Amino acid sequence: MTTLTHRGRRAELGRNSDKKPDSEEDAAVDRDLNDEDPDDSKDIRLTLMEEVLLLGLKDKEGYTSFWNDCISSGLRGGILIELALRGRIRLEPLSIRKKRLLERKVLLKSDTPTGDVLLDETLRHIKATESAETVQTWIELLTGETWNPFKLQYQLRNVRERIAKALVEKGILTTEKQNFLLFDMTTHPVSNATEKQRLVKKLQESMLERWINDPHRMDRRTLALLVLAHSSDVLENVFASLADDKYDVAMNRTKDLLDMDPEVEAAKARGAEMIWAVLAAFNKS
Questions:
Q1: Which pLDDT value is given to residue 181?
Q2: Do residues 244 and 83 make contact, with C-beta atoms less than 8 angstroms apart?
Q3: Secondary structure of 210-232 in HEC code, one letter for each residue
Q4: CA dist list (Å): 100 to 45, 104, 277
Q5: What is the pLDDT of residue 28?
Q6: Long-range CB contacts (< 8 A, 24+ apart) of 57-63?
Q7: How far apart are CA 153 and CA 80, in angstroms?
Q8: Tens digits of per-residue pLDDT, 148-185?
Q9: Neighbouring residues of 17: CB distance < 8 A, sequence distance ≥ 6
Q10: Residue 8: pLDDT over 60
Q11: Is the predicted pLDDT of residue 18 greater than 90, yes or no?
């Protein structure tokens, strides 16, 4: 699991009430989850997975850090959150036996295709399962980290490459071939720096000028991206360009946010349960 790191002055950066009826409640949740961040680009709409990969890519080299062993599972967590934000899946309701986030199963809410190949492939997997699985189990299944040979069929393959190709189609990345002595590798340098700069600026401002100090008043996609960037070990890339004093403020606020108890926070706002469940899964791993 990743940890939030701090840097000293000019130090080198390291890796360092009454319950509503379900239908009424679901409608309220869907309205909340479909709200767009007013700062989002009107020309290009990225999925959470695309945003995480874009944050993790080295701009000129076009690949993620070879030392990053967290981004694969982080991208799968992003798929679950994205599906929840689009109203396709949800956590099963609270019950006397199953109260904790990591005990509650992921349920199919709608099998309507999203138009995104990774999201729709995951949607088909969730629909095809004979028994529902938890958030943590789905992250493991989608990454292929399971000892059950009968469940290897649920692994999503070539996720980074497929997300990169989607970003190429949207004009944000380009495709090149690079030679690494013993092998050739396809890389995807950033060709549209404006979109990545907008994304970084949005996250920086959410922790600085527009800091709210209440996750339930934050834009849900921004909250989700902070959780996923941390879980994917790319959060350092977001704040690296800040001056030291602002860097420390942003990192401390992010740490405070991610140190909140997911169980407590999920109970306050049902619409963000999947975000907190994914954070709980990565906290446990």
A1: 67
A2: no
A3: CCCCCHHHCCHHHHHHHHHHHHC
A4: 33, 7, 9
A5: 45
A6: 57/164, 57/173, 57/188, 57/190, 59/189, 59/190, 59/193, 59/196, 60/189, 60/190, 61/178, 61/187, 61/189, 62/173, 62/174, 62/176, 62/178, 62/187, 62/188, 62/189, 62/190, 63/185, 63/187, 63/188
A7: 17
A8: 777 888 999 999 999 999 999 999 999 998 876 677 78
A9: none
A10: no
A11: no
The per-residue pLDDT of the chain, averaged, comes to: 85
Mean pLDDT of 231-235: 94
DSSP annotation of 101 reads G
CA distances from 190 to 107, 116, 193, 220, 222 (A): 37, 21, 6, 26, 22
Alpha-carbon distances of 268 from 24, 239, 261, 262, rounded to whole Å: 17, 29, 11, 10
CA dist., res. 39 & res. 199, Å (int)? 9
**Distance of CA 5 to CAs 13, 64, 65, 151, 235, Å?**
9, 19, 17, 36, 10
pLDDT, greater one: 81 or 269: 81
Closest alpha carbon to 190 in 56, 32, 9, 11? 56
pTM of the model: 0.85
Cα–Cα distance measured from residue 242 to residue 269, given in angstroms and rounded to the nearest whole number: 32
Q: Which of 15, 50, 100 is nearest to 224 (CA)?
A: 50
Give dist(CA 196, CA 101) in Å, integer. Answer: 32
pLDDT in tens, 57-100: 999 998 888 777 899 999 999 999 999 999 999 999 887 677 89
> Residue 164 and residue 188: Cα distance in Å, rounded?
7
Q: Do 231 and 77 form a contact (C-beta atoms < 8 A)?
A: yes
Instruction: Give the mean model confidence (pLDDT) for residues 109-133.
Output: 95
Tell me which DSSP letter residue 14 carries.
Answer: -
* Sign of the dihedral through C-alpha 61, 66, 72, 74: negative
